[in-house]
Amino acid sequence: MINRQFTLAARPQGLVKRSDFAYAETPLPEPKDGELLVKTLYISLDPAMRGWMNEGKSYIRPVAIGEVMRAGTLGEVLVSKTPAFKAGDHVVGNWGVQDYAALPPEGLSKVDPRLAPLPKYLGVLGMPGLTAYFGLLEIGQPKPGEVVVVSGAAGAVGQVVGQIAKLKGCTVIGIAGGADKCAYVVRDLGFDACVDYKSQDVKKALRELAPKGVDVYFDNVGGDILDAVLTQIRMKARIVICGAISQYNNTTPVKGPSNYMSLLVNRARMEGMVVFDWAPRYGEAIQAMGAWLAEGQLKSREDIVQGLETFPETLNKLFSGENFGKLMIQV
What we know:
Layout: E1 2-8, E2 21-27, E3 36-44, H1 48-52, E4 73-80, E5 90-93, E6 100-103, E7 109-111, H2 127-140, E8 147-151, H3 158-167, E9 171-176, H4 179-187, E10 193-196, H5 202-209, E11 214-219, H6 223-230, E12 233-241, H7 261-265, E13 269-272, H8 282-294, E14 302-306, H9 311-320, E15 326-330
Parallel strand pairs: 8-9, 8-11, 9-10, 11-12, 12-13, 14-15
Antiparallel strand pairs: 1-2, 3-4, 3-6, 3-15, 4-5, 5-7
C-alpha cells in the first residue's frame, strides 16, 4: 500500500497552479506507541488554505515548502496504539492532503456517522459551521428584527450564517454570484432576499431591500462588495470580517475599504474573526447546530469532488466561484 501526498513546492503567485505542489507516493506510515493510523475519507477545501501558503505573519504559521499541504480532514482509524481511539472510529483533524497519516491523538475529535452524514462534520458541524456560529452570534450579536447581510451566501460559511440569523428572528439578505445560488438560499434556506452581484448593482439593491440600512454585515469576500455594504450600514452596525476571498490571489496590493469613514459616521464596529479563538466552546456550538439539523431548522449543501489526484484544480473552484456549497474531496 502507498500513501499519496501533495506537498507544497512553491509559494503561489496569484491563482494556485498544479506546479505549486509536488505529488509523491510514499510508503504507508507506521504508527508509534501512543499514535494511530488513519485512512483519509474526505478532505476539506477552504479559502483559508490560500493564505496558509503565503509567507509572513498570520494567525497560523505558513505551510513549509516540502510539507504536506495543510487541510481539514475526516477519516477512519485503521490501527490504534492509544486508548483514546479504537480501530473503526471516525475522526476529524488536520492531517492534510494525503491518503493516510500516523498521528498522536491530540488535535483529533471522534465523530458519529449515526448522528449525521460524515461530510457534515467538515461543513456545518465543522470549521465553516463553527465560524458562522461564533462569528455571527459573538461578534455580529444580531437582535430580533435587525437586518443581517452575508456575502458568499451560498458558500460553506455563508449558508450557515444566514440560517442562524433567521433562527434569531432577523431579516436576512444574501449576496451570491449567479441566479442559481441566489434562488437556492431564498427557496431552500429561507433567506428573505439575495443580491446577485454578477448581474445587479449591490449598493442599489441593498438600498431597495433594506431602506433603513444594515445592522450586521458578515463579510466573506472583501473588496468592492465590502465597500458597497459600508455605504448602507445603520447606526451602531457590526461588521464581521471573516474572509476576503476576492483578494486572496492578488498579485497587487490588497484593496482595502475606501468607505471606511462610514464606520465613524455610524459609530459602527468592524472586527476580525478567527474560529480557533473559540476552540474551548466548540462543543457548545456543535450541540446547538446538531439539534437544529436534527429538527430540520438548519440545512447544508456539500459540493463533493471525487479523487485526491484532483486537488490543485478542485481547490481553485473556490476562487472561480464554481463550487456550490461546502467544497471537499472524497478520497
